[in-house]
Design goal:
The chain has 301 residues and is of the alpha/beta class. The protein folds into three domains: 6-61, OB fold (Dihydrolipoamide Acetyltransferase, E2P), CATH 2.40.50.140; 69-232, 3-Layer(aba) Sandwich (Rossmann fold); 239-296, Ribonucleotide Reductase Protein R1, domain 1 (Orthogonal Bundle), CATH 1.10.40.50. The protein has helices at residues 98-110, 128-140, 154-165, 180-187, 191-202, 239-244, 247-250, 270-276, 282-296, and strands at residues 6-15, 18-22, 28-32, 45-50, 55-61, 67-71, 76-81, 85-90, 115-119, 144-147, 169-174, 213-217, 221-225, 231-232. The protein has a six-stranded mixed sheet with strand order 10-9-8-11-13-12, with helices on both faces. The chain has a five-stranded mixed β-barrel with strand order 1-2-3-5-4. It has a three-stranded antiparallel sheet with strand order 7-6-14. β2 and β3 (28-32) form a beta hairpin. It starts with 5 loop residues before the first strand and ends in a 5-residue tail after the last helix. The chain binds guanosine-5'-triphosphate (GTP) and zinc ion. The site of zinc ion has 7 residues, from α8.
């Protein structure tokens, strides 16, 4: 890269006020964003000017195709930009949390990003009967599901997943212990080595486990691994977004007494009736109610 010329690079990590970008040749630079320091996120394409051998200044951020948020107990922040697909890994051991999965589906859907669900550890066949209704429900919600066993059938797993990951930018998520790292290592052979290189380049030491990482996958794909996050941020969603994100609610709205029914305290609500009859999963309704009520609270910021 010649000095002083603008070039486009990918943000591959952010850490506090620092971010790191990778150019087309694979060289990593520390990036300084003057002024608005917080507005770049992993996955962003940015226009840079080289300021030294190892540093660039970010001049501007290219328009994003998509943006996902994560949240912790304190706030919601951007997680990754320009993602084409979210791949969620779950397994029956340790037990999965359906709410985590439903919230991820909602986050992806409202960001217009397709979702791929990977059921891992399918070698534990004793759990099949228990998990089948949940898998059927996910299919009804419109998710693509693939079942694999990353340790018992690694080659088959790789063959099944490869075509679903190539040519795309995939955000890989999952609760702890579901086999996400095992799957990442199957797909990206040098993932562990890359992780070490990152922590050296970023001078993160032990903090690597909390940072989002970008792994190139072929020429035009990538896997973004985000080990530290617990929940997708949904605080920016409106009540309408949430209603639209629950197909079983959306399809019953026309049978509610009030056309603007929120399905909370309103009388003659077709949704609540369906919950009472168990035509709607009460746990899904409980999540709806919680998220809907959250949007109705006055915001204190
Ligand atoms: N039986 C079985 N065990 C698996 C399978 N895939 C992964 N495991 C095991 O599950 C455990 C967790 O796997 P990891 O890949 O470390 O899980 P992770 O989701 O990255 O977990 P964190 O590192 O906590 O985020 C390990 O002991 C794996 O060997 C599988 O297909 N079948
Ligand atoms: Zn209603």
């Amino acid at each position: 890269m010649s000095n002083n010329k603008d070039f486009v690079a990918r943000v591959i990590a952010t850490h506090g006020k620092h971010s790191f970008v990778e150019d087309k040749t694979g060289k990593i630079f520390e990036a300084i964003r003057r002024g608005k320091k917080k507005d770049v996120v992993v996955g962003d394409l940015v226009k840079c000017k080289q300021s030294s051998d190892e540093q660039v200044a970010i001049e501007s951020v290219e328009e994003r195709k998509s943006l996902l948020y994560r949240s912790d107990e304190f706030r919601t922040k951007p997680l990754a930009a320009n993602i084409d697909q979210v791949a969620l890994v779950f397994a029956t051991r340790p037990t999965y949390n359906p709410r985590f999965i439903w919230k991820a589906i909602l986050a992806a859907e409202t960001a217009n990003i397709p979702m791929l669900i990977i059921r891992n550890k399918s070698d534990i066949t004793e759990d099949d009967n228990q998990v089948r209704p949940f898998i059927d429900q996910l299919k009804e919600l419109g998710c693509s599901i693939i079942e694999v066993s990353a340790t018992a059938y690694p080659k088959e797993t790789e063959e099944k997943l490869f075509p679903l990951f190539e040519h795309r930018i995939t955000l890989l998520i999952g609760q702890s212990g579901m086999g996400k790292s095992t799957i990442l290592n199957l797909l990206v052979k040098d993932a562990e080595q890359k992780t070490q290189e990152y922590s050296k380049a970023l001078n993160l030491g032990k903090q690597t486990t909390t940072s989002t990482r970008w792994f190139q996958f072929g020429n035009d794909g990538a896997i973004v691994d985000s080990p530290g996050f617990q929940e997708f941020g949904l605080a920016h969603l409106t009540l309408n977004d949430i209603m639209r994100g629950f197909p079983e609610i959306k399809e019953r709205v026309e049978y509610c007494r009030f056309t603007n029914c929120r399905h909370l305290e309103e009388p003659q609500c077709a949704v609540k009736a369906a919950v009472e009859n168990h035509d709607i999963d009460p746990e899904r309704y409980a999540l709806y109610k919680e998220l809907a009520e959250e949007t109705l609270k006055p915001k204190n910021y």
